[in-house]
Amino acid sequence: MTSRPFKTRFAPSPTGLLHLGNIRTALFNFLLARQARGTFLLRLEDTDAMRGHEKYARALEADLRWLGLVWNEGPEAGGRHGPYAQSERGSVYKEYFTALESKGQAYPCFCSEHELAIARKTALAAHRPPRYSGKCRALSPQEAQARFARGEPATLRFRVEEGKTVEFEDKVRGRQVFSTDDIGDYVIRRSDGTPAFFFCNAIDDALMEVTLVVRGEDHLTNTPRQILLLQALGLPLPAYAHIALVVGADGAPLSKRTGSKSIEELRAVGYLPPAINNYLARLGHTYDANAFMNLEALAENFDLSRLGRAPARYDEAQLMHWQREAVLHLPSTTLQEWMGDAVQALVPADSFAEFTEAVRGNISFPADALRWARIVFTDKLVVSHAAREAMMAAGPEFFATARQALETHGANFKVVAETVKQARSVSGKSLFQPLRAALLGELDGPEMARILPLIGVERARKRLSL
Ligand SMILES: Nc1ncnc2c1ncn2[C@@H]1O[C@H](COP(=O)(O)OP(=O)(O)OP(=O)(O)O)[C@@H](O)[C@H]1O
């Protein structure tokens, strides 16, 4: 098994937009494949019955590409093991159902939902695991045929040998032991003919030669069932790593069904791919270095043994930290594009590079850049209460001197400030705050030496005349 080429996979069901929990699973699989110079496979776990799966499939592919989590095998990328959408693999699953039936390892079950529900309740009341009683196990082929002929619907159940254990070494959670007595015979094909999710999932992992399955721990209880299936079919087993789920502030796992914030929404407000990647790679996983890293470095230093088992809590403040880091690290031209049309319309082309560098340290989103662009390049200055107080405290003579210095020396903040300092004997906060307040309308913001030349003498003169 270990001699097979290293391959991980991400196998989402396109039932909604991906959220940070799903993407973290994709990221870990991507990083591990990249680190091992192996393959990162994408498989769509859709079924024909799913609504809108085409739309969501395209959306999740776009999300992955946007984050740079590019798959080397799967839809569009191609590969030897396609098709890569489960809705197109019906004939493959059929073949394996037949194989299991002909070996006597699967049998038709005619028990109705109602009957099964009663049996489950009875078992639970008697403190027994609610596993299938085995009622249809012993049906003779003739009897089964007769019932089919009468048009009775049947599921297909996988036969599980009693009194055994299924064991595997989980790469995150350690040794896992399950008793087959708790599992019981389980449904692998529903009565409408559709295969059970974990059946397709296991068969596909084996046929697509996946060697390591990294997925949310919500799948942990599927694993012994999948191992039993693969063993019965003589198919290779992957290694497994079940990672803690990402939970929201309420402690509940992020989920498409409960409307968790989607990657698409984060992209729309201006979150940057390296911010999301740096944040998620550290969510429940630790690196030695806390520095901002590109995907290559995140991959190089990723370590499965450093994954925590506790639920990973989504923390927006942490994501914001990495967003600011990403803004600081972005190439200037990319940052300008990211700022968007509204900023581009306000900032003169020949000042864009200076503007970008001046505000880079003070923005987290394009909306922040727009605010600074309005302050610097329009006459609509909104002066905050604190700024107005600082200006009042400095008094009109302070500003008369500042205006005079501006006329004499131009938009050179250092010289203007130095002149005011000498002439009015003020320094530190009492010098810089009123100047900043008048010129920007705020007490915090970009470095004045960079921003004043962009504001220009004319606009600065008016602002110092307040
Ligand atoms: N909250 C979460 N935290 C971490 N991983 C998650 C979370 N929710 C789903 N995953 C993982 O994302 C991968 C893709 O899952 P899939 O698209 O089937 O979503 P799902 O399990 O149906 O989740 P959802 O509840 O969001 O629909 C799986 O490995 C799953 O374990």
TrEMBL record:
Electron transport among keywords: no
EC number: 6.1.1.17
GO biological processes: glutamyl-tRNA aminoacylation
Residue span, Glutamyl/glutaminyl-tRNA synthetase class Ib catalytic domain: 7-319
Main location, first listed in the record: cytoplasm
Chain span(s) of sequence motif 'HIGH' region: 12-22
InterPro entries in alphabetical order: aa-tRNA-synth_I_cd-bd, aa-tRNA-synth_I_codon-bd_sub2, aa-tRNA-synth_I_CS, aa_tRNA-synth_I_cd-bd_sf, Glu-tRNA-ligase_bac/mito, Glu/Gln-tRNA-synth, Glu/Gln-tRNA-synth_Ib_cat-dom, GluQ/Sye
Record's keyword annotation contains Cytoplasm: yes
Keyword terms: Aminoacyl-tRNA synthetase, ATP-binding, Cytoplasm, Ligase, Nucleotide-binding, Protein biosynthesis
Localization: Cytoplasm
Annotated coiled-coil segments of the chain: none
GO cellular component: cytosol
Catalytic activity as recorded in UniProt: tRNA(Glu) + L-glutamate + ATP = L-glutamyl-tRNA(Glu) + AMP + diphosphate
Pfam families named among the record's database cross-references: Anticodon_2 (PF19269), tRNA-synt_1c (PF00749)
MF-aspect GO terms: ATP binding; glutamate-tRNA ligase activity; tRNA binding
Top-level division of the source organism's lineage: Bacteria
Ranges for domain Aminoacyl-tRNA synthetase class I anticodon-binding: 349-465
Motif 'KMSKS' region, chain ranges: 253-257
Residues binding ATP, per UniProt: K256
Principal EC category: ligase
Oligomeric and partner information: Monomer.
Function noted in UniProt: Catalyzes the attachment of glutamate to tRNA(Glu) in a two-step reaction: glutamate is first activated by ATP to form Glu-AMP and then transferred to the acceptor end of tRNA(Glu).
Family as reported in the entry's similarity comment: Belongs to the class-I aminoacyl-tRNA synthetase family. Glutamate--tRNA ligase type 1 subfamily.
Protein's UniProt name: Glutamate--tRNA ligase
Native source species: Sulfuricaulis limicola
